[in-house]
Design a protein that fits this description.
Layout (H helix, E strand, L loop, with lengths): L8 E5 L2 E5 L5 E5 L1 E6 L4 E7 L4 E8 L4 H15 L7 E7 L5 H18 L2 E5 L1 H6 L8 E9 L2 E9 L4 E3 L4 E3 L1 H6 L5 E5 L3 H8 L4 E3 L9 H13 L24
Parallel strand pairs: 4-7, 7-8, 9-13, 13-14
Antiparallel strand pairs: 1-2, 2-3, 4-5, 5-6, 9-10, 10-11, 10-12
């Protein structure tokens, strides 16, 4: 008895691999991207397939990124029924952020990409929180606590669909940040209680709520997916953390 031979043809449509057999039957296999953000003590991971966020997890780490990250990724993939073989790329937040925390996330992402032959794309950390903000002001300041009473700050301007970077990444105090606000400005990001009080009382500030300021790894994955669709993958060997002051890392974290 001869063994039946089934021939498959494959075509990718909007990031989804569609397979047809010789009888005309088909099944779908979605390419999945893993997102990893360990920029600060707020850690996030997500799985995204170009259509939806398949799974997402966020938590506050007490500087245990090394111990927590790999088991968390494994658990997330197991819950989402996604195997390592189903991954096609890794998106990683590249900073600014904590010196040690950033390197843990980058090392994990690079190791996975190199060992499995996956595409790798690095996304600036403040772009992740800026991407979810409404275009309701003439300017946006995305901030991150930088330690030693300083803030990492990136300015954005309104674009056609979302905020676009409009200046250099800087480090400043809260008072210096307030002095830079000249017109209606939305401020978002990780801020302590005092900073929220001071900025909330400023007449020209639209202060994002803590929930609005949360860096969602699903957004990181979506930004990474967009970069990959335009062919803008990064070199896993050359990709480096984004630090302030020409290479000086943000202290703490």
């Amino acid at each position: 008895m001869k063994r039946a031979v089934v021939c498959w043809s494959r075509r990718t449509v909007s990031g989804i691999a569609v397979y047809w057999d010789s009888s005309g039957s088909r099944f779908l296999e979605r390419d999945v991207i893993l997102a990893v953000d360990t920029s600060t003590r707020s850690v996030g991971i997500a799985l995204y397939d170009g259509v939806q966020v398949v799974a997402e997890s966020l938590w506050r780490s007490s500087s245990y990124h090394t111990v927590e990250l790999a088991p968390a990724v494994e658990a997330l993939m197991r819950r989402a029924d996604v195997s390592v073989d189903g991954l096609r790329a890794v998106a990683v937040a590249i900073g600014p952020g904590s010196f040690t925390a950033l390197r843990i996330g980058l090392a994990f992402a690079k190791g996975l990409a190199l060992s499995r032959g996956l595409a790798l794309v690095g996304i600036p950390t403040l772009d992740v929180v800026a991407a979810t903000q409404p275009l309701d002001a003439s300017s946006l300041l995305a901030v991150l606590e930088a330690g030693r009473r300083r803030l990492a700050v990136e300015r954005y301007r309104p674009g056609a669909e979302r905020w676009e970077r409009a200046g250099e990444l800087i480090s400043c105090t809260l008072d210096e940040l307030v002095s830079r606000i000249e017109g209606p400005t939305r401020v978002c990001g990780e801020l302590d209680a005092r900073a929220r009080q001071v900025l909330g009382e400023h007449s020209r500030v639209v202060l994002a709520t803590p929930a609005e300021s949360t860096r969602r790894p699903g957004v990181l994955a979506e930004l990474g997916w967009g970069r990959l669709q335009s062919g803008a993958a990064d070199d896993p060997v050359a990709l480096a953390p984004l630090y302030l002051h020409h290479g000086d890392p943000i202290p703490g974290g």
